[in-house]
Recover the amino acids of this structure.
């Protein structure tokens, strides 16, 4: 007899194979977060080289104080959605501050970055429309497309020519298509030639959405992301981002140069049918956004140590992602080998991310390291030394 639970056999097998490692990577417990770059894991202080805390703001006194103040002033939660249960003044202020940060007329908050992609796509496209997705796009972009009911076509990762071909084949439908890409891809740490994507979209009249989840705060002179770094803020149609990485909180947003974004509030189910962000989260996000704007030195520091990490790992003879960025990926020749490197790194006191198929972009296995502006030079050297020990005697690729 069939059961709904039959489909879990594969997941159970995966869990068991990961557990054979000793420490199952999906079940690592940070017994205590010590500061922005260290946590206690298995009883000992461990360097966090696998978070998205790019600007190191999670323990910033200004952010913590703002959150505490909001807790006492506005309580622990909003208990409902903005549509049904009301907007808090801070929701509106944060929206205004984000719009102003980008120089756009509109911004819209969501309760998570995942929800921001779902909510934007589900509002913008629907059955009969077309979304052109980068082959390595984040799951939330895929899920947003699915929720919308639009037709999904994939083009080769970061390849504007591949997009051009796909749009050409669409004929008349190309002018109402949406193209979705990312500003900084979170696994290999690579980033696309955004202006070339703008060229192709403009050629066919398609709209362009850029998910700047990992590039907010890390790229562009003022931290606005790849769209700023490439000088195309006036050519991109929608930017989606998250508060959960550089801003050290949770929540997401969509901004646009198009006034129509304000109408998404009336149609976007992931905006309407979920509770609005908690006051303390909105308050710490506002404080973090202020620091992002006032302290460009955090971004400079991040790129200085990212360059050191990339070069240090490269000098070990390892094969890395294609571009220097705050995410540095070490390619491994097999999933088993990647698991053993990850395990040895943890034993050396360095927490990284194990990425194996199907989570990896090209079917490969890798160790993802990511940096924070709060990492000290000494910690960066410790990470490099630990990778050296964990990969000793074997080339990772
Ligand atoms: N987009 C991208 C590219 C992401 O990497 C993530 C999170 N990993 C999200 C969206 C979702 O953001 P959040 O975790 O804040 O919901």
């Amino acid at each position: 007899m069939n059961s709904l639970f039959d489909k879990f056999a594969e997941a159970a097998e995966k869990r068991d194979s990961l557990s054979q490692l000793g420490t199952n990577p999906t079940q690592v417990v940070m017994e205590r977060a010590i500061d922005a770059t260290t946590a206690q894991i298995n009883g000992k202080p461990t360097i966090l080289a696998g978070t998205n805390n790019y600007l190191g703001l999670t323990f910033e006194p200004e952010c913590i104080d703002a959150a505490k103040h909001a807790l006492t002033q506005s309580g622990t939660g909003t208990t409902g959605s903005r549509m049904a249960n009301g907007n808090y003044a801070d929701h509106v202020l944060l929206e205004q501050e984000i719009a102003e940060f980008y120089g756009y007329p509109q911004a819209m908050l969501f309760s998570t970055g995942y929800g921001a992609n779902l909510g934007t796509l589900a509002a913008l496209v629907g059955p009969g429309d077309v979304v052109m997705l980068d082959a390595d796009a984040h799951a939330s972009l895929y899920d947003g497309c699915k929720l919308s009911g639009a037709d999904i076509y994939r083009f080769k990762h970061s390849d504007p020519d591949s997009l051009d071909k796909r749009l050409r084949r669409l004929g008349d439908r190309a002018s109402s298509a949406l193209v979705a890409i990312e500003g900084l891809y979170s696994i290999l740490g690579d980033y696309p030639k955004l202006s070339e994507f703008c060229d192709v979209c403009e050629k066919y009249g398609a709209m362009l959405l850029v998910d700047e989840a990992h590039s907010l705060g890390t790229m562009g002179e003022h931290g606005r992301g790849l769209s700023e770094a490439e000088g195309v803020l006036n050519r991109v149609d929608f930017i989606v981002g998250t508060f959960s990485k550089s801003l050290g909180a949770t929540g997401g947003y969509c901004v646009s140069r198009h006034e129509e974004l304000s109408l998404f509030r009336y149609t976007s189910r992931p905006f309407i049918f979920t509770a609005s962000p908690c006051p303390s989260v909105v308050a710490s996000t506002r404080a973090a956004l202020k620091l992002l704007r006032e302290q460009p030195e955090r971004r400079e520091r991040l790129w200085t140590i990212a360059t050191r990490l990339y070069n240090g790992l490269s000098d070990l003879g390892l094969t890395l992602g294609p571009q220097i960025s705050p995410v540095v990926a070490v390619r491994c020749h097999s999933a088993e080998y990647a698991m053993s490197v990850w395990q040895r790194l943890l034993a050396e006191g360095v927490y990284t991310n194990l990425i194996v198929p199907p989570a990896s972009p090209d079917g490969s296995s890798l160790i993802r390291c990511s940096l924070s502006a709060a990492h000290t030079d000494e910690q960066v050297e410790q990470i490099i030394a630990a990778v050296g020990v964990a990969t000793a005697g074997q080339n990772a690729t």
Observations:
- The chain has a mean pLDDT of 96.
